[in-house]
Task: inverse folding
């Protein structure tokens, strides 16, 4: 009887170890894939970064872009270091895990700041922009609970942390896209949809960038956050408890970085086009300014405006 129980216990331990190894392997493959994706995108957009940010004066847009771009690259390097042989001591591994988590949570700050700035640029309501910023920083704040609670234990989806985090992200993204669609005039939206994604114009405006990039940003992250939430809820079911969904977060973070970087590059390019257009208009003595949306200093100018 005792030997039978011992065999069952060893079988359960072996099964748990195999499941944990499979989950860690999936996460590792995901991290390597995301690092390759970000490196490839970096090489594709480096010339635009040099042209639009390095050769212009340093502004808040430059700081936001650099932090978003290079902080994530540091995080990916730290993650790759984790593949190297490390100490078997629990304390050393705990320190490495805490440092990695700290960098991971830190990357959410520029994303939240960018969301708040977009809300303020479009709505001009400071309270609304602060609310969206708070919604965007709640998820990393929730994950800070790992520090006092420690890094051992069993994740319980019913406890609600995943639901809180993903719901806050979804609400913030939904508010942003509603503000974008309600602020930018309907004729412009119809015109952009009929012409396609910048396929028939050589010069696009700040409003075009906010509309097109904002919509793409919303749709992509809606897919990832919804998938994470669905897989988390499915793991509550006994038959699906072995379901691993942690890799979704890795891809969500990488695509968020990529989208924000592209967003800022396009905004900076549109701002540059606007400056060139104003210069040409000024030399011809023409001054025609219709309704505008102020994007403040995030674009790189105190008085930058986007034609609505």
Result:
């Amino acid at each position: 009887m005792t030997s039978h129980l011992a065999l069952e216990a060893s079988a359960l331990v072996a099964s748990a170890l195999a499941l944990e190894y499979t989950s860690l392997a999936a996460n590792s493959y995901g991290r390597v894939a995301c690092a390759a994706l970000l490196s490839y995108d970096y090489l594709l957009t480096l010339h635009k970064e040099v042209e639009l940010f390095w050769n212009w004066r340093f502004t808040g847009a430059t700081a936001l872009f650099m932090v978003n771009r290079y902080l994530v690259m540091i995080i990916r390097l730290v993650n790759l270091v984790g593949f190297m042989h490390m100490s078997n001591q629990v304390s050393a591994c705990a320190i490495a895990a805490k440092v990695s988590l700290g960098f991971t949570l830190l990357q959410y700050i520029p994303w939240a700041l960018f969301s708040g700035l977009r809300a303020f640029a479009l709505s001009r309501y400071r309270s609304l922009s602060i609310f969206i910023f708070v919604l965007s920083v709640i998820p990393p704040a929730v994950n800070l609970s790992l520090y006092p609670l420690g890094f051992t234990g069993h994740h319980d989806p019913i406890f609600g942390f995943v639901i809180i985090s993903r719901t806050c992200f979804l609400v913030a993204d939904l508010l942003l896209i509603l503000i974008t669609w309600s602020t930018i005039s309907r004729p412009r939206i119809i015109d952009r949809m009929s012409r396609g994604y910048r396929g028939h114009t050589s010069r696009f405006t700040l409003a075009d960038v906010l509309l097109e990039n904002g919509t793409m940003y919303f749709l992509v992250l809606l897919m990832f956050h919804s998938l994470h939430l669905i897989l988390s809820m499915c793991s509550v079911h006994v038959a699906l408890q072995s379901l691993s969904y942690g890799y979704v977060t890795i891809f969500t973070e990488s695509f968020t970085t990529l989208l924000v970087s592209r967003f800022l590059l396009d905004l900076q390019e549109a701002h540059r086009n606007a400056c060139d257009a104003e210069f040409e208009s000024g030399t011809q003595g023409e001054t025609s300014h219709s309704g505008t949306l102020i994007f403040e200093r995030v674009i790189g100018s105190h008085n930058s405006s986007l034609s609505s």
